[in-house]
Design brief:
The chain is an alpha+beta fold and 401 residues long. It folds into three domains: 160 residues, 2-Layer Sandwich (Gyrase A, domain 2); 80 residues, Aminomethyltransferase beta-barrel domains (Alpha-Beta Plaits, 2-Layer Sandwich); 84 residues, Elongation Factor Tu (Ef-tu), domain 3, CATH 2.40.30. It contains nine helices and 20 strands. Strand 7 and strand 8 form a beta hairpin.
Length: 401
Amino acid sequence: MSDLTEARPSLHTEVSRPTPFHPRLSGLCLTNEWVRWGGYTTVNAFDNVELEYFAVRNQSTVFDVSPMNKYCVHGPDAERFMNRLLTRDVRKIAPGRVGYCIWCDDAGHVLDDGTVFRFSETEFRLCCQERQYLWLWESAVGFDVTIDDVSDEVAGLALQGPTSFAVLKRMGLEGAAALRPFDVTDFEFGGGALTVSRTGFTGDLGYELWVPPERALDLWDALWEAGRLHGLRPIGSAALDLARIEAGFIATNIDFVAKDNALRPNRGRSPFELGLNRLVDFDKGHFTGRRALLEEREKGSRYHVVGLEVLGSKPARDALVYVGEATQVGTVTSAMWSPTCKRNIAIATLKRPYDLGKEPLWTEIYVNKEGKWEKVVALCHITERPFFKTPRRSATPPLDH
C-alpha cells in the first residue's frame, strides 16, 4: 500500500497549477475567465456561454477534465475492497466497463460520487470530485490492495456532442463505433495507449479520453485537426453545468454537500435522499454505511432530490419552495431555462412527504433587473429526470455526422 506520509504534500497543495492542456486553452480563452478546480486553473467560459452550450447539443465540444481526482486501486483484494467501499455491487461491473458510483461514511451520508473504471479482475480506477486518498487509505486496512493517487499522472478531455464520434473516426479511431455506453478500451495513439471511455456529464453522445500528461498536447492537436469539419469547439464549466442540469445529473457541493465538507452534522445526505436508490445493493454483503441505510429504509428519509418544472421563464436559481403561502418545504439547488427542452427546469431538495407532489408547490424567485431585485412567485410541479433525453446518447454504433 502507498505510504500515507509520502502522499500528504500532494493533498495540501495551495497554489493553483495549469493543466497539461493549458498552453492550448489559454490562447482560446477570450474572456480570461478562470476558476479553481482541484488545485488546477480551469476555464469557466471561453467566449460566449450560450454558444458553448449550443455546441454541446449540435456539434462537438472538448472540456478539460484533468483536475478530476483519480485513484488506481489494484491488488488481489481490489474487488473485495471496492465492494466494501462503494454502495453498489462492483462484481457486476465487468472488466472493460465503467460504473457510476457513490460511497458513504458510517452514518450513511454520501462522501462523494464518481465513476469506477474496471480494467481487469484486480485493477480499478476511481474518478471523483473531492480528494479521497485518506479515506481510501483508511478504508483499506486489512485488505491486500495498493492505492495510488494518479491524479497528476493522467490528463483527460471530455469529447461531447452529436458529432463526437465523427471526430474520433476522422482521427483514426474507427473502433470507437463498437463502444457501448460505459465501455472503456485502449487505442494506439502516438506510439502509446489512448484510453477512451464512452462516458460524460452532458446526457448526450460523448466520450472521455485519457493520456499521460506528456502526450496531452498531441491529443489536443489531433482532436482539433480532426474536428475542423465537425464544429469542434472548447467549452468551459459554465456551459457544461447547463448541459448536466438538462441531463438531470446532480453535482457534488452544488446539489448536495459532500459530508467531509459539511460543517453541520445534519447537512449530510444519504443515497436515498439524493434519489440514488438504484446504487445501493443490500444483497451484496456489508459495505460502509449499510447499517445506517437499512435503518433509514425502515424509518424513511428526511429529504428527496427531485426535478421541477417551473412556470414562466425566470430561472429559479437558489429559490425557496413553498406549500401555501408560508410553509417552506425545500430549496432549488440548480436551475435554468432550457433552450433545448423549451422549459424552465430545476433540481431541488424537498422535505418529505412534500416530494410526492400532492399539494401545489410554489417557488419564490428573486430576479435582478438592472440593479433592482424583484420577487417572482411561480407555480411549479415535480417532473421526471432527465429533462433532456436523446437516443443518440445510447445508439451503438453512433451516427457518423
